[in-house]
From TrEMBL:
It comes from Conservatibacter flavescens. InterPro entries: Gate_dom. The chain crosses the membrane at residues 61-81, 140-162, 174-193. This is Nucleoside transporter/FeoB GTPase Gate domain-containing protein. Keywords: Membrane, Transmembrane, Transmembrane helix. Coiled coil: none annotated. Residues 65-162 form the Nucleoside transporter/FeoB GTPase Gate domain.
């Protein structure tokens, strides 16, 4: 699965990898109106297209429709980044980190970053890696365990839970933790969950086991 990469291709791939990290990582959300940010580009459907309460079958169907643009956009951009060597560069630079840490190759880095912003982007880009035979069935199981736990942690935590850290009690005291500490704990346990799956895969999943 390892591909030889020339120095020229490595440079181009590294630039493409940096662009992918910026695009999926939310680092450019305030630059030029967010035109280089995945979460800003996908956006949301208008309120009039949602049903009241969101509990009906119609509401579920309409919610499913909102996933289509983000999945298509994620797959399209991953294909572009792959064309310019981002996945090869990621494998070169990040495999020495991700392999010991979780037992997954560096090509998963783009999908890993995407999954912190959007569960749809994370799952679709991971499926792309598996379909292109960039990762094995075992690596897919491990990486899926990482993504399943606290999916889209940055988007969900910062939009839903981070404001609670500023809520004070009757004496004016706030929670004695920072946003960075909370995110760090979440990320550590995501890695812990991935390694639990890694142990399970090593013991019970065979190399030639067919995928379901």
């Amino acid at each position: 699965m390892r591909e030889e990469i020339s120095p020229k291709m490595l440079i181009a791939g590294t630039v493409s990898l940096v662009c992918a990290v910026i695009f999926f990582g939310g680092f450019a959300k305030d630059l030029w109106g967010g035109i280089f940010d995945f979460s800003k580009l996908t956006g949301q459907f208008p309120d009039w297209l949602k049903t009241s309460g969101g509990m009906s079958a119609k509401g579920g169907f309409l919610f499913a429709l909102t996933l289509v643009p983000s999945v298509m956009l994620a797959l399209g951009f991953v294909a572009i980044f792959e064309h310019y060597g981002a996945l090869a560069a990621a494998s070169k630079w990040l495999s020495p980190i991700l392999k010991p840490l979780m037992g997954i190759p560096g090509v998963c880095s783009i999908s890993l970053i995407a999954s912190t912003q959007s569960t749809d982007a994370g799952s679709s880009t991971t499926k792309f890696l598996r379909n292109e035979d960039k990762i094995t069935h075992k690596e897919l199981l491990i990486f899926s365990a990482f993504q399943f736990s606290a999916g889209a942690l940055l988007t969900n935590f910062l939009s839903s839970f981070a404001p609670l850290l500023q809520v004070s009690d009757q004496f004016g005291n706030v929670a004695p933790v920072s946003i960075a500490m909370c995110l760090g704990v979440i990320f550590i346990f995501k890695i812990f969950g991935a390694n639990l799956m890694r142990l399970y895969v090593k013991k019970f999943v065979k190399e030639d086991e067919a995928e379901v």
